[in-house]
Amino acid sequence: MALRRTTRSVDGTIPVPALLYKDEEIYVSQDGVGIYDGAQKSPNHQAGTVFVTTHRLFYIDSKSPYKHSFALDLSHIMQTDYYAGLFKSSPKVTLHLSGNSTTSGQGTTGDDEAGFESWECEVCAYRNPPGLSPAAAAVCGLCGVPRTSVPSSTASVTSQHLSSSLPSSTASLTVSRSSSSTGTPSFDEGSSSIACPACTFLNHPFLRSCEICSTELPPPTHQPRRAMKSAPSSRPSSPESDDQDPTAPRIIKVSFRKGGDKAFYAVLKRSLKSKMWESNGIGTSARGLDPRVEPHDQNTVGKSGITGILRTVESSAQGRETGMLDALQDLEALMVKAKDMVRLAAELNEKLTAASASGGVQSTPGLASSAEPEEATFIRSSLSQLGLQMSNAPVTLDMMKDERRWIEELARELARVLQGSSSPPSKERGMMKDRGVIALDEVWGGWNRARGVALIPPSTFLLVLPHLPHFTDPPVQARTFASGLRVLHTPPYTHSAFSARLSGMLALTGPKTAMQVAQMEGITLGLAAELIAAVETDGDICRDDAAAAIGGGGGVSGGGAEVMWWANVFVGYTWDGQQ
Amino acid sequence: MTNVMSLSTHTTASGFLLPSIHSAPPFFTQQPNPGTQAIAIEQWTRLILTYARHRRLFVLRVEDAETTGNDWDEILRNERINRKLLPPYLSHILSAMVAKDLAVYEPPRQTRSVLLYWRSPDEWAETLHSWATATGQLNTILTFYDITDPPIESELTGIPIPLLRKAISILGKTGRAQMIGVADGEGVRLFAGGR
């Protein structure tokens, strides 16, 4: 029977996700289905749920999940048909299976274990994790070199699949699972080792030069694995007895009694098309991304050699990143819970306070009063360390003092970064040594670069700024322009000082472009433009746009010089034209 | 504030004395600062109306800033400092003038062309009445043509019909004028008034 020979019984009492390989994923599930073995209904499989994964199709029987559930490797499916149903007949999906059997009853368990267990690559000594699908477990996850002593079952699956596109020859080409299910490695280590011509050391067949003396080795004499597999000696001893005509179509039908057939069939087709079971697991650590996106890419791009290793490292880094994001999501969930924590702590705090108040009356006042603040402080400070604030309880003076001292220290440090250390006439020059005004982002970046470690977050940075004038000489202050740009500046760049200076300069030396002002002040053009704009807002200066030139304006004196700044010629003007 | 920039007045070919601010390039740029801009608009309004009276111009269009060779070249452009008034700025100035009743959009329901009130309609009404009195044409029927194109040139020569109509209707309110339909259009009869 096709059903018995191609499927593998699974314990349906275990949830399906636990049955999956590590690199396997569930695509879709549908309940209320029955199974036809060939043309007849399979009596034991008439009510259950089917799952389609990247590698397999699961049927979990709802009546006796332990006995009648099974899994079918998608690699066995050669063709699928879809029947939409008519009147009382339910929609069905017909699965045409490749002719021969690969699993037989008891032999599977040993193979499964062999495929599942963790193993060490003989080339790069990478410890491959257990639980990968057979195809993925056949090669080393790091260096991509095929596993030499792998149980033949995994190889047979691969070769079977390769030949499944030639239905007529499959039976003769593929290896019966039963023949290799004894579990002995079909690959004899000793026979294929290469003896070093110089020192006679038996080297691993994959090595090109002797491990001991580095003499170049002769090419391996044994045949490639695949050829060995199809050698006549390893052919199935006898095809299993089949009570049906061997040429009869080997089909399984899935009958959808509760609908869902169309979606199921579409997903099944897609899973069959993507052939994820062929993929050897390299790059599967990036599985968080959609595995269906580029399955072929994973197959075609080099999965061995340095490139392969690099790719593996890369993809595992990607996987880690995804994992990290997930972890951060957990943190976000914790943040949501933070309110509850604060409430809880507040309650605790109140209780402590109440207890100490009552205790203060009864017991020795000295003891109680000293015990209370300690506990309460602990709660409050641990909360504030977590970044949570109790709204009703003020931060204790201790913490305030600590924080203030910290901020002040930071301000002192920032002052050094900005103005250089003042005590010795050092060569160390601060960021603002030559400049009177500097953008805040530059300061923040420069400071953190100077710190190197324990970087300062912007919020703390902003807390430090108000303290800066106390530690700088001349005092450095922060200023926000109308555009939202924030800067630090020395006294000559306060609004009033710059405004007076600019107006005087324009009145004395005539109109200037922002570029000229920037040059004269030794500041960047952007900052000059911001400073000038602030003065214009006050109405102390006015503009002459070269766009109003008769020749069409602009571009005559070069880009960026379009606007000339004038002292305000309008203020105080009295009409002196014709009356 | 004092300027070293020597801004000086200038007399145009038509004999108009341009104010010194007309030779300041910022005068031709719209100022973002509202206070500065208000002064600039005020000066532009005064310049336009003064020049209009000087040249007896009644209409100013935004197009006048777009083309050259029109009546307004002397004030909308300043070749000496290579500056001209841009159409958007002129449009802005016109709307400010309309808002202050120093001009009116003519024809109505558009904003590209204004009728300038270098004399208010009230003043025009008085001018019309005193002209009719002076020329002894009270109580006679005058066509609009008689007023806008009299045999002897008057202050009313060339006055646009919409403005003339406004002036007449103002006189009509005090009983000093009466609109009369005549064979070839409209006419008006002016009275001594004071009734």
UniProtKB/TrEMBL annotation, chain A:
A GO biological process of this protein is:
protein transport to vacuole involved in ubiquitin-dependent protein catabolic process via the multivesicular body sorting pathway
Outline the segment boundaries, as ranges, of region: Disordered. Answer: 154-190, 217-249, 283-303, 354-373
SUPFAM superfamilies recorded for this chain? PH domain-like, Winged helix' DNA-binding domain
Which PROSITE patterns does the UniProt entry name for this protein?
Answer: GLUE
Where is there biased composition of kind Low complexity?
154-186, 230-239
Instruction: For this UniProt record, give its keywords in alphabetical order, as a comma-separated list.
Output: Cytoplasm, Endosome, Metal-binding, Protein transport, Transport, Zinc, Zinc-finger
Gene3D superfamilies annotated for this entry? 6.10.140.260, Pleckstrin-homology domain (PH domain)/Phosphotyrosine-binding domain (PTB), Winged helix-like DNA-binding domain superfamily/Winged helix DNA-binding domain
> Compositional bias (Polar residues) spans?
355-367
Chief localization: cytoplasm
SMART domains the UniProt entry points to: ZnF_RBZ
Any GO CC annotation of this UniProt entry: late endosome membrane
Q: Where in the cell is it found?
A: Cytoplasm; Endosome
**GLUE N-terminal domain spans which residues?**
10-284
Q: Which Pfam families does the protein's record reference? A: EAP30 (PF04157), Vps36_ESCRT-II (PF11605)
Q: Nuclease as a keyword?
A: no
The record's GO molecular-function terms, alphabetically, read: phosphatidylinositol-3-phosphate binding; ubiquitin binding; zinc ion binding
- Tell me which InterPro entries the record gives: GLUE_dom, PH-like_dom_sf, Snf8/Vps36, Vps36, WH-like_DNA-bd_sf, WH_DNA-bd_sf, Znf_RanBP2
Q: How does it assemble?
A: Component of the endosomal sorting complex required for transport II (ESCRT-II).
The role this protein plays is:
Component of the ESCRT-II complex (endosomal sorting complex required for transport II), which is required for multivesicular body (MVB) formation and sorting of endosomal cargo proteins into MVBs.
- Protein family: Belongs to the VPS36 family.
Protein name per UniProt: Vacuolar protein-sorting-associated protein 36
> Native species of this protein?
Lyophyllum shimeji (Hon-shimeji)
Upper classification of the organism: Eukaryota, Fungi, Dikarya, Basidiomycota, Agaricomycotina
TrEMBL record, chain B:
What is the similarity comment for this entry?
Answer: Belongs to the VPS25 family.
Q: Which InterPro entries match?
A: ESCRT-II_cplx_Vps25-sub, ESCRT-II_cplx_Vps25-sub_N, WH-like_DNA-bd_sf, WH_DNA-bd_sf
Sorted alphabetically, the keyword list is: Protein transport, Transport
Q: What is this protein called?
A: ESCRT-II complex vps25 subunit
GO biological processes:
protein transport to vacuole involved in ubiquitin-dependent protein catabolic process via the multivesicular body sorting pathway
Q: What is the lineage of its organism?
A: Eukaryota, Fungi, Dikarya, Basidiomycota, Agaricomycotina
Gene Ontology MF, one: protein homodimerization activity
UniProt source species: Lyophyllum shimeji
- Cellular component annotations (GO), alphabetically ordered: ESCRT II complex
